[in-house]
Amino acid sequence: MAITTGEQTGSVTYSAIKLAGLAGILSTALGVAGVIVDQMWTIPGTGATAGEIAGFVDTHRSALLIALVLTTIGVSLWLVFGVGVWLSMRATASDESFLAACFLAGFVSFVTLLFAGFTSFLVLVYRAPAASDPRLLYDLSFGLLAMSGVPTALALCAYATQVFRDGRLPGWTAWVAVAAALANLVLLASLVIRSGFFSLEGGVTIAIPGTLFVWIIGMSVTMMRTDRSAASIGG
Length: 235
What we know:
Blueprint: E1 3-4, H1 10-38, H2 50-59, H3 61-92, H4 98-127, H5 134-147, H6 149-166, H7 171-186, H8 204-224, E2 232-233
Antiparallel strand pairs: 1-2
Helix pairs in contact: 1-3, 1-8, 2-5, 3-4, 3-8, 4-5, 4-6, 6-7, 7-8
């Protein structure tokens, strides 16, 4: 399926979309590397005491710092990727670009919340093991991650709505976006569930972001397949 973006987009939009697709792939690679470096599946659970959290952070300080740097760079690249998707949506919109604006607002908002969460965790790593309230900083980091699910869902739903309405971008990317949007709304459950998989520091914090990674990878590959001569996105 080839999606015409229109001749008016020109070579600048073509190059930007291709670059954004590359940024999306690199960001995902950095994010996965960060998870592997800090072995996120071994972090203290929701029921961990302040002492256990402080001890874990102090013991794994170097790995956590490296992982945070990798993840921060990766999420920064998401901004480049997001702008590329926004350009694609504007170029393929049948009328006004309201949905594209909603996508961009949601995308920037959830990235901002992620940066806030990273900052909280960096302060914890910086102060450990002497942080006065390590559990508060720890919970705040994951709480901001959970809250980011709302603007993430907004961005993905705006994207999917435009694709379903106009049919000028690959339909499968919209279905993946819908699945990821619904999954990210589930993150809110971690703010009220106190134990188990769906709790604040439970397995949900790894599983749910994985759905967003799948959409980003798929969309990035699609964007990198943009054809200059046909000025199209998709395949």
